[in-house]
Design brief:
heterotrimer, A mainly alpha, B alpha/beta, C mainly alpha, A: mainly alpha, two-stranded antiparallel ribbon, 16 helices, 66% helix, B: alpha/beta, Rossmann fold, five-stranded parallel sheet, four-stranded parallel sheet, 15 helices, 17 strands
Chain lengths: 401, 454, 343
């Protein structure tokens, strides 16, 4: 289907189902239960899941296929966000032109930076990309403030021209929309104790993510993708066969830069603010971690990694002592306090600690990332099933004898 | 939270796109008729406290959080009541807000505008918070204030000192109790004149981002008005940790005062470096060389240790103020007492502003008789109050900025403990730090209209 | 002229911190082939060794002073350090004041041990894994280490001053015939520079003139052959990891009086130190030192006022600009070898 083989089609369909039903899947706990803290099905986080999924999918096209480890990809995300917000300020609150411009501008940036950086390989390439991104961040935070609004981040204001929209309602800021469909529009469905948010913005992001995912599958399976893998396994040999690998790697770099720009544009569309921190090296490092954590070079891994990190950042950081006490309230006082003391360092302001430990555990025990974890569990089930059929076969044999 | 923002025209335009999966029927939508975002139920109301819990300002965030917890406890009738007993308004009676028990959620801003907005959005979308407060830097405050304006909840700013928060980036749903760079400058200038005379040459080192610029601009203007000369203004990168390269040339520049427009970690490092280079003991132009840190933070002053001795700066509030300057600053001792009893040390100015903001919000809701942000904003605008530790204070309607006395402090010679690092030099009365709403340093923005959300 | 001398001094001083960290990073990379993202954390732990020692030395007992009251009106509790009561107040205070230099002795065994545990317990299992995995696991470790420090010591910087004998500054300019007060430089920064020079020289001498060092150098060049000769190269490499950790730790200990240590100082240095290592050339020890000093000096010059007037913001990006320029003209950095980390 759609030019994919059976396995990839199944994967795509599975991803499609997961994203379409995410508002339900991510809110498994009733609103008033103590576990509701772990619900992730609110619009902002769901949007972040898929947007950073797009970012990581794009990064994986470069890193997973060619092995070139860019440490400056956040710059493209930031550039995308800035272009999108400028589009909102100058042209229209419709997200479509903003996203298109974001992809275009970040593509141009990626072309320039990639052209220079790809003259080197290995860690020298990583440091070149890091240097470009850090320069962008430092300048955006200070000297380029007229364009980026520096520390505060680029925001909409009441007196922006917005040529296409004409005069909006005075006194309040317009909201981003897709031909009238407001990105922040949310329908809440209550079913018994459960509550699910169906957000227009989320579904726009999710559909774009599915398209981006499909495109990346096609790239992985194409002759172009094969060429990129050849670069990873042995670039020298490739060069000796008379092929110039540079145009291929540059194309991969630009494509992944455009993915980052798309993610940046979407971020700005969901929440029209572009901050310079989006370009800092920690943000670049984050996408590297997402990809490795999920499983570099696999199709679905980066998306899982993105979800994993964003979940910790947004859910674990909000668990404070008060919440802990309500969890353990049923226990006797002494044990309650003891448990709160034990758990306290790992949640709330200690969420970084848990994240760091998770990085270490995953990379130590699951060398292939989260995807490998999934495969192992899958194998376990299959083996058990296999044993069962063996046993059944044995059982069926016995009476015959 | 349930809202449907389809305009009629919009729906018609999108037609099929929207119709397919999104316009699901709303079952049991509880809040649809109340007309504002996150209208609380009958038993409880949720406030969102968004403070830095990781990164360099984590300790300041922790102190803000302590103050919030204390305020919630007092609002719900627990503890000794703290400043509720001294507050000039007495509609708060320890039964929560409008009879609803106060609950709160916390989040981590990471001192990044992006993360702060994500955290605030999760409070609004997931936890149903009706008010967001906290923060320890102006970038974050402006970003979250913008978000609250769009979402239709009230933002009660925490520690934010940039002129922009209630200047060019002011918003109808945002309120600031903390003072700002202009007030710092206006309060410091006369004190500096009496300390160091009117014939001085100042060299500015300024953190290269918006807050740093607004403070430098304010201080330069105020000191030039008393006759000082600004020799140079050098911008330093935010990420810089070693300021030696910026400090070294100061002594040969003809300046005899160094103004450090730095905050937090930058301030600790630049001040430490300046003292290392002997600036505090040096003579220049026949006068003793002086260092000024316009915005003090007690927590960070602790990080600079003995280097702050004798260095003047300004504060929004100090925990010793009622003891030293009398009952004009009533509320201070009540707050210090309940905070100190609960946590074992005196509160910082960040804690005080967060505590006061929470009480002010609760009070405004009670006086308005509604949680509707527009009603709350109306109750806060132009509100005059007293007994929250800062003396008589006005929440100005024109820009949602509080006007009150500014404390000028100086690093103490022999501190008795690590919480007693500064001594109060003088208090500049509110009239002297008041400015017009359309003052050029605050121009370029508009409050807009209050947004109740859905 | 005086400004240039002053900024050169500043650059050397900044550079010596970069060089020390980059040296340790290169030692680990050159011997073990591991990209250690936790190296900044080792620097930070070194700093906190000094903090810990000063806390231990000023460990106190409490007496209640009824004549004074604390901020709540209760009788004031006064802390008296045990060393004060053991050695008398002035001698005791001198011991506390000298805690940073004393911390050097305290930090060396601790850092060797930390390095040993890290290598045996974690890094060892990652020699054959891709660099990406090494980055992830050491980055995870760095986060864990800094969060643990944050939980113990808080997020605020902790002042750890130099001994009184080294506060104040030297009027350097008078020696060179300038007017008094034109070139003055803090004592402790000079101490830091000379200390770094000694440590760097010691590491080089150790590798150059001892049998151990010779074996390690041989192992860096060709690990397998050395192993085939019947030498237990793994054990020596483990020790090199310990030494590298100690170098980073010492850099941290001595840095505390310059800037008050905080839990995230390691991350602040991490990116810079990687840039330094790569500009120097992966795996080259002299390259790391050279690049450290070069970037330190260039950064100091870029923050001079007249340069900033011509090119605003140049001090924000100078390091990265130089890194790009060097990597484009010299493919393997200043002194890098062919084939190291290029795949």
């Amino acid at each position: 289907m759609l030019g994919l083989n059976r396995k990839d089609t199944t994967l795509l369909i599975a991803v499609a189902i997961l994203t379409m039903f995410a508002p339900i899947i991510l809110n498994p706990f009733p609103v008033d239960s103590a576990m509701a803290q772990f619900n992730a099905g609110y619009p902002d986080l769901m949007q972040r899941f898929v947007i950073f999924g797009i970012f990581a999918i794009g990064f994986n096209i470069l890193f997973g296929l060619t092995g070139y480890l860019s440490f400056g990809h956040a710059a493209f995300l930031g550039v995308g966000s800035y272009s999108a917000v400028w589009m909102f300020k100058l042209l229209s609150m419709n997200v479509l032109p903003a996203i298109l411009l974001a992809v275009l501008i970040s593509g141009v940036f990626a072309l320039v930076i990639g052209y220079v950086s790809l003259r080197r390989s290995g860690i020298y390439f990583s440091i070149l990309t890091l240097a470009f991104a850090q320069m962008s961040f430092n300048l955006a935070y200070s000297v380029l403030t007229p364009i980026t609004n520096g520390e505060t981040g680029l925001q909409l204001s009441l007196d922006d021209p917005r040529i296409l929209d004409g005069a909006g309602s005075a006194g309040s800021l317009p909201v981003t929309n897709l031909f009238g469909l407001e990105m922040r529009a949310t329908e809440t469905v209550n079913l018994g104790p459960w509550s699910w948010d169906f957000s227009a913005g989320y579904y726009v992001c999710a559909l774009i993510m599915l398209a981006a995912f499909y495109l990346s599958v096609r790239i992985f399976r194409s002759p172009f993708g094969l060429m990129l893998r050849a670069v990873k396994s042995n670039q020298q040999r490739l060069n000796y066969t008379g092929l110039n690998s540079r145009p291929y790697t540059l194309a991969a770099f630009v494509i992944s830069g455009m993915y980052a720009g798309l993610a940046g544009g979407l971020l700005a569309s969901m929440d029209p603010l572009a901050g310079a921190e989006r370009m800092q090296w920690t943000a670049s490092g984050e996408v590297v971690l997402m990809t490795i954590l999920g499983g570099a070079g696999t199709l679905i891994g980066p998306v899982l990694g993105a979800g994993f990190i964003k979940y910790f950042e947004n859910i674990f950081s909000k668990i404070n002592d008060n919440v802990l006490h309500t969890w353990f309230a049923v226990l006797p006082d002494g044990i309650e306090d003891f448990l709160v003391t034990i758990v306290h360092p790992f949640v709330g302001k200690g969420w970084h600690l848990t994240l760091g430990l998770m990085f270490m555990l995953v990379v130590i025990f699951l060398p292939g990332g989260l995807v490998e974890g999934g495969q192992r569990i899958g194998r376990l089930f299959r083996r058990r099933k296999g044993k069962q059929t063996d046993a059944e076969a044995d059982a069926s044999k016995t009476p015959a004898e | 939270m349930s809202k449907s923002n389809f305009t009629r025209r919009g729906v018609l335009k999108t037609g099929a796109v929207a119709g397919a999966g999104l316009a699901l029927p709303t079952y049991l939508s509880a809040a649809a008729h109340t007309g504002f975002t996150n209208a609380p139920g009958d038993s409880e109301v949720v406030l969102g406290f968004n403070v830095p819990q990781s990164g360099p300002y984590a300790d300041e965030g922790a102190d803000e959080l302590r103050a919030f917890e204390l305020a919630v406890e007092h609002l719900n009738g627990g503890g000794d009541g703290g400043m509720l007993n001294t507050f000039s308004s007495n509609v708060l009676d320890g039964t929560g807000i409008l009879g609803r028990e106060v609950k709160y959620v916390t989040g981590d801003t990471q001192t990044k505008s992006d993360a702060a907005r994500a955290s605030a959005r999760s409070m609004i979308e997931k936890d149903g918070a009706i008010m967001i407060s906290g923060g320890s830097s102006s970038g974050v405050a402006v970003a979250v204030q913008g978000l609250c304006q769009e979402a239709g909840v009230i933002f009660m700013a925490g520690l934010t000192h940039s002129n922009d928060t209630t200047g060019k980036d002011k918003k109808a749903n945002g309120f600031r109790h903390f003072f700002n760079a202009y007030m710092s400058a206006a309060a410091l200038a006369p004190v500096l004149q009496s300390l160091y005379g009117a014939d001085r040459n100042a060299y500015h080192l300024t953190a290269d981002y918006t807050w740093g610029w607004t403070q430098q601009e304010s201080i330069a203007a105020a000191t030039e008005a008393i006759g000082w000369n600004t020799v140079n203004n050098v911008l330093t990168p935010l990420a810089e940790t070693d300021f030696s390269a910026y400090i070294a040339p100061v002594l040969n520049s003809g300046a005899d005062v160094l103004v450090l427009n730095h905050y937090g970690g930058n301030m600790v490092n630049s001040l430490t470096n300046a003292v290392q280079f002997g600036l505090r003991d040096a003579m220049a132009n026949g006068k003793q060389f002086e260092i000024v840190v316009p915005l003090y933070s007690e927590l960070m002053a602790r990080g600079a240790g003995a280097n702050i001795v004798g260095i003047p700066g300004s504060q929004n509030w100090d925990w010793k103020i009622e003891n030293q300057l009398g009952s004009r600053y009533a509320g201070t001792n009540a707050f210090v007492q309940s905070f100190g009893t609960k946590y074992g040390f005196p509160p910082s100015q960040a804690a005080q502003t967060c505590y006061a903001q929470t009480l002010l919000y609760a009070d405004a809701v009670t006086r308005a008789g509604s949680f509707n942000p527009c009603a709350v904003a109306e109750a806060l605008e132009g509100y005059e109050f007293d007994g929250l530790g800062n003396g008589p204070t006005l929440y100005r309607a024109g820009d949602h900025q509080c006007f009150k006395d500014v404390v000028v402090v100086r690093g103490k010679e022999n501190p008795e403990n690590e919480f007693d690092l500064v001594e109060i030099v003088e208090v500049t009365p509110a009239e002297q730090v008041t400015y017009d709403v359309d003052h050029p340093m605050f121009a370029g923005g508009a409050l807009g209209e209050c947004n109740p959300g859905a | 002229m005086d400004a240039i001398i002053l900024q050169t001094l500043n650059g050397l001083d900044k550079g010596s911190a970069y060089a020390l960290i980059a040296l340790g990073l290169t030692l680990i990379f050159g011997t073990l082939g591991v990209v250690n993202f936790a190296h900044g954390a080792l620097f930070m732990i070194g700093s906190f060794c000094a903090v810990t020692l000063s806390r231990i030395l000023s460990y106190s007992y409490e007496i209640v002073d009824d004549t004074r009251t604390d901020f709540l009106g209760n009788p004031m509790k006064v802390d008296i350090p045990y060393v004060h009561s053991w050695f008398g107040e002035s001698a005791g205070q001198t011991i506390i004041d000298w805690s940073v230099p004393l911390a050097i002795l305290f930090a060396i065994p601790i850092m060797l041990f930390v390095g040993y545990v890290m290598e045996r317990g974690l890094i060892k299992h990652f020699y054959k894994r891709p660099h990406a995995d090494q980055i992830l696991v050491t980055f995870g470790l760095a986060i864990v280490l800094q969060e643990v420090v944050k939980q113990i010591y808080g997020a605020n910087p902790i002042p750890t001053p130099a001994p009184p004998a080294f506060t104040g500054s030297l009027d350097f300019g008078v020696w060179l015939g300038f007017d008094p007060n034109t070139i003055i430089y803090p004592y402790w920064r000079l101490v830091y520079f000379f200390f770094s020079a000694i440590v760097i020289a010691a590491v080089f001498a150790f590798l150059q003139f001892t049998t151990f060092g010779m074996v390690v150098r041989a192992g860096m060049a060709d690990r397998e052959t050395v192993g085939l000769l019947g030498i237990d190269i793994d054990k020596r490499f483990t020790m090199m990891f310990g030494i590298a950790a100690a170098v980073a730790g010492l850099a941290g200990v001595m840095y505390t009086p310059i800037n008050s240590p905080n839990y995230h100082m390691g991350m602040d240095f991490l990116v810079l130190s990687f840039v330094v290592v790569v500009v120097g050339g992966m795996g080259s020890l002299p390259g790391a030192v050279l690049a450290g000093f070069l970037l330190g000096i260039l950064q100091s010059f870029a923050s001079m006022n007249w340069i900033k007037d011509i090119l605003p913001g140049i001090d924000q990006i100078i390091i990265y600009l130089v890194a790009i320029a060097i990597l484009l003209t010299r493919p393997r950095g200043l002194m890098g070898r062919k084939g190291v980390m290029e795949d």
